[in-house]
Design goal:
The structure is a single chain. By secondary structure, the protein is α/β, with parallel strands linked by helices. The chain has helices at residues 20-29, 87-100, 120-133, 148-151, 173-176, 195-203, 218-232; strands at residues 3-5, 15-17, 37-41, 46-54, 61-69, 77-81, 104-109, 141-142, 146-147, 159-163, 171-172, 183-187, 207-210. Strands 6, 7, 8, 9, 10, 11, 12 and 13 form an eight-stranded parallel sheet that branches. β7, α3 and β8 (141-142) form a beta-alpha-beta unit. The protein is elongated.
Length: 235
């Protein structure tokens, strides 16, 4: 099944029109024609079965035949990950985490961050593409970049962890995770979290954890953490 994305549709509409870019892709590249079936999600858990009513490469019009809604997972996984020096590494993390099943992502600016200015437009497109490719019906939420200090002002439900490389007392993430609970995990930059940031996290009830015996890159650590949570929640 090939999945398309349109955030503007919901269960109350009977037809809709794809934008020019998506219409051109459907008609010119995929060579779809009137009467063909397309499957579309709005990123909110809905899967719509649609049929092309007007095969225009400017305004591809489809009518909705049926729809279903996927149950939301019993846990909400939120990763707060410092941007990497090279953008392509962070983009790789976004793609893989979306495929695995993350629900929310926040880029956090830390004391040792080498990249402090982030444009999220391209990040958003990568997440949308990965959602379609992996046949997920829920689009992960991408928050605007925020300093770690400001991040702690939010309220977080469920389990809270900070993964770091300092030689201090840490627990194993895989041993601490509990199924069917919301999880928030902090992943630092290439230079790791500062001692001050680790202490601030502990003061905000984040548990220091290890992701294994080896030192991982930021993007690798984030994917490992993401997979660990999803794996823990598999039936």
């Amino acid at each position: 099944m090939q999945l398309f994305y349109n955030p503007s549709i919901n269960e109350t509409v009977t037809s809709f029109v794809f934008d020019k870019e998506e219409s051109k892709h459907i008609i010119k590249v995929l060579r779809k024609k009137e009467g063909d079936i397309l499957f579309v999600t709005n990123g909110l858990g809905f899967l719509f079965k649609t049929q092309i009513a007007l095969a225009s490469d400017n305004k591809c019009n489809v009518k909705i035949i049926s729809f279903e809604k996927q149950e939301v997972s019993k846990f909400h996984l939120h990763l707060a990950v410092a941007p990497t020096k090279m953008n392509d590494r962070y983009e790789w993390f976004l793609e893989k985490a979306t495929e695995i099943g993350i629900r929310e992502i926040t880029p956090i600016i830390c004391d040792h961050s080498e990249r402090k200015i982030i444009k999220t437009d391209r990040f958003q497109k990568i997440i949308e593409s990965a959602m379609k490719q992996s046949l997920h019906y829920y689009l992960p939420r991408l928050n605007e970049p925020i300093s770690l200090k400001e991040f702690f002002k939010n309220n977080f439900e469920g389990q809270k962890f900070i993964a770091h490389c300092e030689e201090t007392s840490k627990k194993s993430l895989k041993n601490e995770l509990k199924p069917n609970e919301d999880v928030t995990i902090l992943i630092g930059p290439e230079g790791d979290f500062s001692i001050k940031e680790i202490q601030l996290a502990i003061e905000n009830n984040f548990i220091p954890v290890s992701l294994g015996d080896t030192r991982l890159r930021t993007e690798t650590a984030a994917v490992v953490a993401c997979h660990s949570v999803v794996f823990k929640n598999e039936n």
